[in-house]
Amino acid sequence: MRVSSIEFTIGAVGKGDLPAAGLPEIAFAGRSNVGKSSLINRLVQRKKLARTSSTPGKTQQLNYYLANEQFYLVDLPGYGFVSGGVGLRSTLGKIVGRYISDRQELRAVLQLIDARHGPTELDLQMIEWLQEAQKPFLLVFTKADKLSRDKLKTQFDRLDSQKSLAGISFVSFSAVDGRGKDDIWGWIDDALAGKAV
C-alpha cells in the first residue's frame, strides 16, 4: 500500500472524543516503549508523525492518524509502566479495554512484542483479550535488528515449542532497517478488506 496522505487528527481520552466518520480503524497495541510510534512512522515513511520517546508511557491517549482519507491508524496507550502512576494506568486500561471490545470501526489490531524478550505476562493477557473479543490481530515482534538471524530463529522456535502462540500469525519488524514493513502492509490491506484472521 502507498500512503499518499497521513495526518494526526485527534488524541482521544474518552468515548466522546472518538471520530464519528465511520471509517475503518487499525490499532497498534503493546507494552510501553515497545515501538508502536516507531512502527507507525516507518509504515508511513514519516520520521516524526507519531511522537517517539525513550521514556515509557508517553502515549496517554488514543492517537488517531487519518491515512489516504480512507482509514485510521490508532496508536493505543502502552500497558505496563505509565508515567502517571497506578491510577492513570488503570484509567488507560479501561479506555483501551472499552475501545477494543466496543468499537465497531476497529477492524484489526497489531499486537507488538519486543523480539529480544518475547511475550511478557501482560502481552499474553492482551492476546487472550483480543481472542475473547474476536478481533483479528497480528503479532509484530519489534526491534528484530537487535538480534542476529540465529538468535531470532531460536526465539521463535522457543515460542513455538511452548505452544502459547500456536496458530497465531506473526511477523518480525525493525524500524531501523524496515524489515517486515511490506508484510505488515499486506496484512493491513487484508484487514481493511475483511480478510484478516
For this entry, give a set of tags.
single chain; 197 residues; 5 helices; Rossmann fold; alpha/beta; seven-stranded mixed sheet
What does this molecule look like?
The structure is a single chain. The protein has 5 helices and 7 strands; from the N terminus they run E-E-H-E-E-H-E-H-E-H-E-H. Strands 1-3-4-2-5-6-7 form a 7-stranded mixed β-sheet, with helices on both faces. Strand 3 and strand 4 form a beta hairpin. The protein is globular, with a radius of gyration of 16 Å. It has a single domain (6-192), classed as Rossmann fold, CATH 3.40.50.300. Residues 53-58 and 81-89 have low confidence and may be disordered. It is an alpha/beta fold and 197 residues long. The relative contact order is 0.17.
The main β sheet shows up as:
7 strands, mixed
Tally of contiguous helical segments: 5
What is the residue-averaged pLDDT?
Answer: 84
CA gyration radius, whole angstroms: 16 Å
- Can you name the CATH architecture? 3-Layer(aba) Sandwich
The ordered H/E elements are EEHEEHEHEHEH
Total number of domains:
1
Given as residue ranges, the uncertain stretches (5+ residues, pLDDT < 50) are 53-58, 81-89
Give the class from helix and strand content and strand pairing.
alpha/beta
Please give the number of β-strands. Answer: 7
- The helix content, as a percent range, equals 25-40%
Q: What's the arrangement of strands in the largest beta sheet?
A: 1-3-4-2-5-6-7
Query: What name goes with the CATH superfamily?
Result: P-loop containing nucleotide triphosphate hydrolases
CATH class value: Alpha Beta
**And the CATH topology?**
Rossmann fold
**N- to C-terminal distance:** 19 Å
Beta fraction: 15-25%
* Form type: globular
